[in-house]
Amino acid sequence: MSPILDVKGLEAGYGQLTVLRGIDFEVARGGVTALLGANGAGKTTSLRAVCGMIRRKGTVEFDGKDISKTSTESIVALGVAHVPEGRGTFGSLTTEENLHLGAMTRPNNADIKADIERCYHFFPRLKERRTQQAGTLSGGEQQMLAIARALMLRPKLMLLDEPSFGLAPMIVRQIFDILADVQKEAGVSMMIVEQNASLALELADHAYLIETGKIVISGEAKAIREDESIRASYLGY
Amino acid sequence: MELFLQQVIAGIATGGIYACMALAVVMIYQAIHHLNFAQGEMATFSTFIAWTLLAYGLPYLAVFPLAIAISFVGGFAVERIVFKPIEHAPVLTHIVVFIALYSIFNSAMGFIWDFSIKTVPSPFPPGQFFGSNLISNHQAGMVGITFVVLVLLFMFFAYTRIGLAMRAAAANPDSARLVGIRTSFMTALGWGMASAIGAVAGILIAPLVFLEPNMMLTILLYGFAGAVLGGLTSPPGAVLGGFIVGVVENLAGTYIPVIGGELKLTIALALIVGVLVFKPAGLLGRRIVQRV
Q1: Do A53 and B177 touch (CB under 8 A)?
Q2: Which residues of chain B are within 8 Å of residue A92 when distances are taken between CB atoms?
């Protein structure tokens, strides 16, 4: 089966600065791919380049379609949900409005209401906060909201940028458990960028290690998790 | 007491017009973070269109929505043609383009309709509202129509999908694009709506002030004052600010002897400076705090 996301020779950067120097990676259909690496290696840049938020070169194929020239809005409409670094919730809008926005590219019908209920089933905390302004939620709740909003798209592929960032270990554990549930129940393919390598490797089936804009290691998540030398030299745990 | 009441009510009536202009300015400010100096000229242009349609003999009830619809399309087109290409340009570029737009509209109106003053009829019968000496029929109509327009806008933003999308695009453009909202289209829509709201203000005020190319110049200044007072980041604040400016302007003109009719405009400018010095975010505005 062809991968849901197939990236080849991706170069990307900001202004004059080139961050990614030709990288290849794939996300299997229904699979979870982890992209690991230190600060400044190009993890966030990779996700941004996939959904066209920054200047990029190379081929990006999603679900068999070339999206390397497609605008961010159209890529989202194809079914790519990006949960950005820092969550990117709409702070001045309510929790429920944020969820409605997640389904903005879908036709307006009763399914949306049902999907909001499904999100509340995954994240009961959000139901309690439904009429509250998103900006007043705690960090963990905002991360839940960001993931729930992404689910509202009924995505084929979710791009998750550091879902553990700035959260207490217990909340992180909770969020990763829910991600695992979502992945099993909804069969969503995921690409997850993390500094918390051990957590990401538990969820993922495949992993890439990125260093200064190049992929240095690619392999099965399980193999990487068990390889002492990789752990010691790249993952630091 | 009666004079006081009369002035307050008259203030609310013109305040509604200022509120519309303030709201138009804020809608564009929310989308592109610049003040549209040409908002008044665009509104005057719309009023001239209404005047021309009336001169063709169309009934007022058809002219009013038609002029608003034309203004919407016009505002949308101005964004697409003039501002889309410079969306990432620095502030100064925007200011120069706004000034250019101002003088283009102003001169175009002089060229098409000349600078002589014209009277625009009121859709309401002449005379006082229910025979009271507090407010004229036209003023009462102005209050009624601005109120309806403001309520409709509120419902649009609170309860429709596209209204929600517009709010999201203004609040956080990057995230809006990540949920698939075409933010650039939303900006153009905002321009269209601002232009339409300006048209409502222009057409309603015209019977009271005479129509000529500079008709909205001072009214826009009051609108700016209202927007700054209420907070440039808050549409409800802008509306509130517009009404406050209308009432304050009238009361000061009546009760402070030095001010009279001549210095009224100074109040608007003093208000802008005063608010910016003491409460830059305005009454309902949000102070933008950035982590560094």
Answers
A1: yes
A2: 167, 171, 286
B102-128 confidence digits (pLDDT tens): 999 999 999 999 999 999 999 888 888
Partner B contacted by A149 (CB < 8 A) = yes
Class of B2-117+133-278 in CATH: mainly alpha
What is the C-alpha radius of gyration for chain A, rounded to an integer number of angstroms?
Answer: 17
- DSSP per position, B147-209: HHHHHHHHHHHHH-HHHHHHHHHHH-HHHHHHTT--HHHHHHHHHHHHHHHHHHHHHHHHHHH
Residues of B in contact with A100 (CB under 8 A): 161, 164
Cβ-contact B28, B197 below 8 angstroms: no
Q: For chain A, which domains are there?
A: 5-79+155-235 (3.40.50.300), 86-148 (no CATH)
The one-letter amino acid code at B216 reads M
Give the distance between the most distant pair of CA atoms in chain A. 53
Q: What is the ipTM for the molecules in this complex?
A: 0.89
Percent helix, strand, coil in chain A (nearest 5)? 40, 30, 30
Where exactly are the structural domains of chain B?
A: 2-117+133-278
Structural tokens at position B4? 């006081």
* CB contact B95 to A (< 8 Å): no
Tell if the CB–CB gap between A89 and B176 is shorter than 8 Å: no
Q: Residue B291 — very low, low, confident or very high, per pLDDT cuts 50/70/90?
A: very low
- Summarised one tens digit per residue, pLDDT across range B149-162 is 999 999 999 999 99
> Under an 8 A CB cutoff, do B174 and A108 touch?
no
Question: Which residue of A104, A112, A154 to mutate against B (max B Cβ within 10 Å)?
Answer: A104
B179: nearest CB among A74, A76, A108: A76
Amino acid in the structure at residue A76: V
Question: How many Å lie between the alpha carbon of B161 and the closest alpha carbon of chain A?
Answer: 8
Distance from CA of B71 to the nearest CA of A (A): 28
Q: The tokens of A91 are what?
A: 């702070």
